[in-house]
Design goal:
about 210 residues; alpha/beta; Rossmann fold; 7-stranded mixed beta sheet; 8 helices
């Protein structure tokens, strides 16, 4: 899903601090056993998310779309002592893999997996979030954004994944549901005067959003 040339992506990954043994095993199992292994966060984006949590000092993190747990484990590495992550996943198989590795990593007291539709989980969760990572079904991106924006802390940050959608956002002939949803989300954010955003060419495109 990388949108930069493969050799540049490879060079960047080779010059990024590699993951420890547990995330490497998690990545291997994900590629071998789960559907859509291209959804795996991977080394570069995993470190990027870790850096965002570290730089913001986020204590309460919300993730929409756990998949196999790589991103949650990556972000947990940068949490302060009292920090925690709530992560939402609708697929039981994904949640099982994530739960197993989170427990092995000794992070079960810091990462809570909520199984079920993310919007329903969000309605049950209380309080505000310092950092939100949106990486779930693309058709609900605008709904997720609108649900979490009012619940950001004063210096809270949203990171939305896949916003360049393997470059298909530029393909005017592509009217698939996912492409239309990502285009709609990108335009929605761009036109929202409540926020300031920057779209980055990290992996498949990551948009960072904060309140204006």
């Amino acid at each position: 899903m990388a949108i930069v040339p493969e050799e540049i992506e490879g060079y960047a990954q080779a010059h990024t601090t590699p993951p420890s043994e547990l995330p490497r095993r998690l990545a291997e199992e994900t590629r071998a056993t789960l559907r859509s292994p291209q959804m795996l966060t991977g080394t570069i984006e995993g470190r990027f998310l870790e850096f965002l949590v570290y730089a913001t000092g986020a204590r309460r993190v919300l993730e929409l779309g756990t998949y196999s747990g790589y991103s949650a484990i990556s972000m947990a590495a940068a949490l302060p002592a009292e920090g925690r992550i709530d992560t939402c996943e609708v697929d039981e198989q994904h949640a099982e893999v994530a739960s197993r590795y989170i427990e092995e990593a000794g992070l079960s007291d810091r990462i809570t997996i909520h199984l079920g539709p993310a919007l329903e989980t969000l309605a049950r969760l209380e309080g505000e979030f310092d950092f939100v990572f949106i990486d779930a079904d693309k058709e609900n991106y605008v709904n997720y954004y609108e649900a979490v924006l009012p619940r950001l802390t004063e210096r809270g940050l949203i990171a939305a994944d896949n916003t360049l959608w393997s470059g298909r956002v530029l393909d005017g002939s592509d009217d698939s549901e996912g492409t239309l949803a990502i285009r709609a989300f990108n335009e929605h954010v761009r036109g929202d005067e409540r926020v300031v955003s920057v779209m980055l060419t990290v992996r498949d495109g990551v948009t960072l959003i904060r309140r204006a």
